[in-house]
Each structure stands twice: as C-alpha cells, then as structure tokens.
C-alpha cells in the first residue's frame, strides 16, 4: 500500500449504525488479531451485510437462538459461527442493541504477520490468497469459536480490534449479490468489495443441495 494506514481504533459509535452504512465503510479498515504467537493485521477488502429480521439470508431472520445471540447484543462485538462442520467465520455486530445485524468479513490483505498465517493456510499459492474468503480469513488469523462475543472496542489488549486504516475512494467500491445466499435474500446487493483487488474472493451464486433419491421410492 502506498499510504500508511491510520492507527486509530474505531470507536463503538462506528458500529452503532445501520448495517448498510457500516458494511461498505469497513472496506480499507485494518482488523487486528492478537495471539500468543504474535500480532496480525489485515486490510479488509470484501464484506457482506446481514440485516437480521428483515433479511431472509441472515442467521437472525427467524429470531434469537443460542447460536446467534451475540447478534442481538451491543454493537462492536464479534459474532463467530461454525459452518459446514469444518470452518469458522467472523462477523462484526452493528446497529442498535436488540436489532440483530452484522457484517461478514469475507476477505482481506494481510499487512502484518503473514508468516504466522502461512502455516495455517498451506494451500494458499501466494499471500494474496491467505484470507481470500470468509473461512480462509478466519483460519489465517486463527479465529476460533471461543472468540464469539469478543468486544472489538475493548482496547489495546483485546484479541480483536479494528483500526481506522485507509478507506478506498468511493469510486473503487463495488456492490452485488451476496455469495451463496439463496431464496428471497438472494438478490440483495449487500456484498461490498474493492474493485480489482487481488484478495477479493470470486462470486458464487447459491446452489441448492440435491436430495438423494431413496431407492425404495424410485418408482413412486
């Protein structure tokens, strides 16, 4: 990057706004992950907005559950969920408390600590692929389920934080449908990314799962 990113932590008021304002405004911000191994920093290049009760694509669309409870809490916290029985994904809760919404962190450029991320992402052919996708991002930054509910505005010793960074020019921000979202939420153009950035993940539409045909009912 040609410019040095702003090192100022984002305040809670940044997250205490409608999700469709917060999501594109997260582009260019710097996510900090502190581990026992060391510190990693990632410039966010791709995100998706999920708007709770008005969004069929959101985990919170049908109400509060033990899994999504963090989304209903105060803004500026991490919502980490487990998917496909294999991976974690990292979201940032935003909007007023009680109105579940969040931003999925889909991709980014690792600015610091790539040497810590590479052993966790051995299939990455180059550093631009270390955090190219939400599960890859969480894996590269070592984000386990135990970080669910972490306050990202808690201060310099918190395991997760977000710095002001260097937001891109509005002319570089692109928007389109969210990856893998089906049903009524499919057409929402709530995926935001920095155009032509090599770390942005490829778009994939939702593919319905095929049911296995029961041999006993094959002639029914």
TrEMBL record:
SUPFAM superfamilies per record: FMT C-terminal domain-like
EC nos: 3.2.2.-
Domain of life of the source: Bacteria
Broad EC category: hydrolase
Keyword DNA repair annotated: yes
Record keywords: DNA damage, DNA repair, Hydrolase
UniProt-annotated stretches for the region Disordered: 195-220
Record flagged with keyword Hydrolase: yes
A Pfam family the protein falls into: Pur_DNA_glyco
Family listed: Belongs to the DNA glycosylase MPG family.
Protein name: Putative 3-methyladenine DNA glycosylase
Taxonomic source organism: Streptomyces hydrogenans
